[in-house]
Amino acid sequence: MAFFTPWKLSSQKLGFFLVTFGFIWGMMLLHFTIQQRTQPESSSMLREQILDLSKRYIKALAEENRNVVDGPYAGVMTAYDLKKTLAVLLDNILQRIGKLESKVDNLVSNGTGTNLTNSTTPVPSLLEKINVADIINGAQEKCVLPPMDGYPHCEGKIKWMKNMWRSDPCYAEYGVDGSTCSFFIYLSEVENWCPHLPWRVKNPYEEADRNSLAEIRTDVNILYSMMKKHEEFRWMRLRIRRMADAWIQAIKSLAMKQNLEKRKRKKVLVHLGLLTKESGFKIAETAFSGGPLGELVQWSDLITSLYLLGHDIRISASLAELKEIMKKVVGNRSGCPTVGDRIVELIYIDIVGLAQFKKTLGPSWVHYQCMLRILDSFGTEPEFNHANYAQLKGHKTPWGKWNLNPQQFYTMFPHTPDNSFLGFVVEQHLNSSDIHHINEIKRQNQSLVYGKVDSFWKLFVGLGFPYEGPAPLEAIANGCAFLNPKFNPPKSSKNTDFFIGKPTLRELTSQHPYAEVFIGRPHVWTIDLGNQEEVEDAVKAILSQKIEPYMPYEFTCEGMLQRINAFIEKQDFCHGQVMWPPLSALQVKFAEPGQSCKQVCQENQLICEPSFFQHLNKDKDLLKYDVNCQSSELAKDIVAPSFDPKNKHCVFQGDLLLFSCAGAHARHRRICPCRDFIKGQVALCKDCL
């Protein structure tokens, strides 16, 4: 009996527990039933509370972001992005509550057999009130796109984004959501293909950059120390040191003539590909033993100009240095540029370095193309720059096919108007006192002078080679006349081995076309050296007159500083087509069949200006110049725009990279955008400064 006693006691306790539990359960069921009868009121109150809290939360966020332009496209992680998220969350919660109400109502109705007279009235969906789907897609706010004039690639880029924005998750990270407005914002603020929307907040990184101003420098010691790290720069260091006084005087003089304040200080990368070991060239090693110096002259003058103008420069002459400078983006396989402060804003490079730069950056290369400025002695014409067109024409050159804006190529002389003229400084050995008294120097008529200084020379005779060198300009600067050999027929890649493979079809009419066209007599005599009578007449004329030293302003230190500063301030290939030179400089000329725009502009003492072509590429544009197109077509060819005067048929350019000053049509007349220029500063128009 004793064995079973605990079991009985335990059973009694269990029974008591069950009775108590049943009572509590019954009370809870009663409470639950009562609560369900009043559920409509509680749901409504809950909904109001949620909405009220949501409004207060959103208002608080708006207060915290009062300086941010709110809207569905105000940018990633702004208040509106949180509101979109909140709207979706609220909609989801209230939909679940609605389903729960329906189930409880059905349960109560079926359980009691009573039709509730106070059943919940259907609440209009929150979707109808705040339009969640529209908020997500941005349809509730109109996105008015500004005019795309001056941004020729914008429309095409938007079409590409519509099809490809999901190809890389980085686009969504920048706020792209499939809507046209988000495409436009990305293309205007991240990749700079479209105009900026006026109501958008400024990029904080760009604003910070603008606050950093360039101040001119009047001491080259820091630059000299910076370049001491490289033995390859020895020749350039010596040139900079030798010309330091002239450079300092030039920057001070320029600052007095034009306003050099309130200029943005740029982060500039200078990469000398020709001096890298990987290039295989020995330019630095042979600089002191008769090797070519043209590239070193131009590089040293460019670096000095950038430094004196107050910009931050980093110089690279090896792949290791290049990778170190660009390490933030090397290996980045994203289709979007990296977020944050820019590593560089301008990149000066040569053709050899260009290939190295592209290989080093990989996919990130596309985001730095617009910053490139390529030092290119002989120039690159549009038909060689455009990869598909060059291949179509059968051009075999290792130097072209870069698909850049042709004006990004910087030349030694202003021989290719499709490119930009960078130039260099001619080292003048005569000081101001020497120039003043040069006519007092006794010069004898003798054909051979041993070990005499520059001031003893009367005549500098060109022998036909090298082409377009600095020596004739140095001679002219020292009071010498230059006999410039005429080439008939002109020399080009069609008949001269030296030019084969170079990305240009330019024809040289003399050994030094610049001296022939822009200087001329009495300093330059372009003659046929094979014509003895012509040579004798020229020499007699030279000896019979006093020739003053002459230095074109563009080849002085001050002229180069002025030109480079204008390019840095005005040239912009990253933000659509910036209108520079100003349209006030445009003068339209019509070339005869077989004549190029370069030729017809030059005949009228003007320069062909390729940036103006876009303003002559529609039939309505040509009406201003009495050209009435009865019919028209688009063509991807270097001869467009042009027109046939017989049948009034116009051909417009279908590829902006093929606008060319060099192209000539056999039957049509080219429509040519010419401009004026400052005498002694060919790169700049009279209204350019």
UniProtKB/TrEMBL annotation:
It is found in: Golgi apparatus membrane; Secreted. It is a single-pass type II membrane protein. Residues 170-458 form the Glycosyltransferase family 18 catalytic domain. Pfam families: Glyco_transf_18, MGT5A_N. The keyword Transmembrane applies. The keyword Amino-acid biosynthesis does not apply. It is an enzyme of class 2 (transferase). GO terms for biological process: protein N-linked glycosylation. InterPro entries: GT18_cat (IPR026116), MGAT5_Glycosyltransferase (IPR052105), MGT5A-like_N (IPR027833). One of its GO terms (cellular component) is Golgi membrane. Belongs to the glycosyltransferase 18 family. GO terms for molecular function: alpha-1,6-mannosylglycoprotein 6-beta-N-acetylglucosaminyltransferase activity. This is alpha-1,6-mannosyl-glycoprotein 6-beta-N-acetylglucosaminyltransferase. Its EC number is 2.4.1.155. Pathway: Protein modification; protein glycosylation. The chain crosses the membrane at residues 14-34. Residues 6-134 form the MGT5A-like N-terminal domain. Its main location: Golgi. Keywords: Glycoprotein, Glycosyltransferase, Golgi apparatus, Membrane, Secreted, Signal-anchor, Transferase, Transmembrane, Transmembrane helix. It catalyses: N(4)-{beta-D-GlcNAc-(1->2)-[beta-D-GlcNAc-(1->4)]-alpha-D-Man-(1->3)-[beta-D-GlcNAc-(1->2)-alpha-D-Man-(1->6)]-beta-D-Man-(1->4)-beta-D-GlcNAc-(1->4)-beta-D-GlcNAc}-L-asparaginyl-[protein] + UDP-N-acetyl-alpha-D-glucosamine = N(4)-{beta-D-GlcNAc-(1->2)-[beta-D-GlcNAc-(1->4)]-alpha-D-Man-(1->3)-[beta-D-GlcNAc-(1->2)-[beta-D-GlcNAc-(1->6)]-alpha-D-Man-(1->6)]-beta-D-Man-(1->4)-beta-D-GlcNAc-(1->4)-beta-D-GlcNAc}-L-asparaginyl-[protein] + UDP + H(+).
